[in-house]
Amino acid sequence: MTWLEPITLKGKHVSLVPLGQQHCQDLIETVKADQLWDTWYTNIPEPESMAAEIERRLQLQTQGAMLPFAVLAADGKAVGMTTYMNVDTVNKRVEIGSTWYGKRVQRTGLNTEAKHMLLTQAFEQLNCIAVEFRTSSFNHQSQRAIARLGAKLDGILRNHIRHKNGTLRDTYVYSILQSEWPAVKVHLQYQLDKNR
C-alpha cells in the first residue's frame, strides 16, 4: 500500500473522484466551451490531447508521484482536474496543483470546497507537515485564489521552468503549514458558510 491511495471526496458543490478516461469527454467539452488551453501561462490540455493528459497523470500515479482527481460539479459532470503532486512520502509533503476548472464553475464555492476537502485529507488523514501551491508569476487570478485560502507566499523560483510557449516561468510558491491548518480550516468553513 502506498501513502497516497485513490479516494473520493464529496461535498455539496463538488466531488473529487479518481481521474480516469471515463471523464475525457466531459473534460473535452469543458475546455472547448471556454477555449481554456488558450491562456499562454497555464497548462490546460487542448481537446485533442485530453486523453493523453489523463494517461500522463495516471502514469505518474502508478509511480507514486501524483494522485489525480476529476472535479465533478453538483450535476455530476467533470468540469476540471486537480492533483496531489510533487509527492514527498518521506517528509509527508504534497503540492495541490495542475488544477483547472471550466469557467462556469470559476469564482463559485466549488474551488473553496475542493481545497477544503483536499487540505483536510492532507493534514488530517495523510498527516502532512505542509501543503504547497505553485503558480506562474503571470497567473494573477491563481495567486489571489491561493492567498484567499490562507496560504503564505514562501518565495519565487526565478527561471524555474518553461511555459508551453518556451518562455521562462518564474514560479510563485505558497504553502500552508500543519500548525496553520486549524485556523485555515475555520477560515475556509467560514467562506463556505458565507456563500450559502
The CATH architecture can be given as 3-Layer(aba) Sandwich
Specify Rg, calculated over alpha carbons: 16 Å
Unreliable stretches (pLDDT < 50, length at least 5) are none
Shape: globular
Please identify the structural class as seen in this structure.
Answer: alpha+beta
Mean pLDDT: 95
Give the proportion of residues in helices: 25-40%
Report the end-to-end length measured between terminal Cα atoms.
Answer: 39 Å
How would you name the CATH homologous superfamily?
Gcn5-related N-acetyltransferase (GNAT)
CATH class bucket: Alpha Beta
Most strands sheet: 8 strands, mixed
Instruction: Name the helix and strand elements from N-terminus to C-terminus, one letter apiece.
Output: EEHHEEEHEHEEH
Number of domains: 1
**What's the arrangement of strands in the largest beta sheet?**
1-2-3-4-5-6-8-7
Number of helices: 5
Strand content: 25-35%
CATH topology: Aminopeptidase
State the total count of DSSP E strands: 8
Question: Can you characterise this structure?
Answer:
The protein has one domain: Aminopeptidase. An eight-stranded mixed beta sheet has the order 1-2-3-4-5-6-8-7, with helices on both faces. A hairpin with a 5-residue loop joins strand 7 and strand 8. It is α+β, with helices and mostly antiparallel strands. The chain is built from five helices and eight strands, in the order ββααβββαβαββα.
